[in-house]
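quick one before i forget lol
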Amino acid sequence: MFLDKLLAHRNDLDVQLSIRCNVDHENYESVSLLLQKLADEGLQNKLRFYVAPIYSWGNDAHTRSLTKEEFAEWEINWFDEMINLGFPIGFIPEVKPIVCMAVHQTLNWWMLNGTKISANPVFIKLLGVGCRV
């Protein structure tokens, strides 16, 4: 099999491999098979694997595309399979604790309940914001 010749099996090279799998109606059911084959070869920690939906770039690719909803549903399944097969998943954000959950100041703006407002002291006083980050 070609996978035994992959750079990922070489220990004498410092390389980062990424595999992007473009997904459409013709191949979405094969992604799980590819993930399993990569895992069988022991490549989970030696490469980055991700899927991407195909888009129309002035051609007829949209006729083979999954809908956004279909792709999202399958992508969740693939993430689950990747986790179960031991692939590292880098999409989960880290926790960033803040003092007050209602307010988070960034530069000259405040975030208040998801709304961006000016950090003008008059606005802050009018809103009665009681905690600062």
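fyi The chain has a mean pLDDT of 75.
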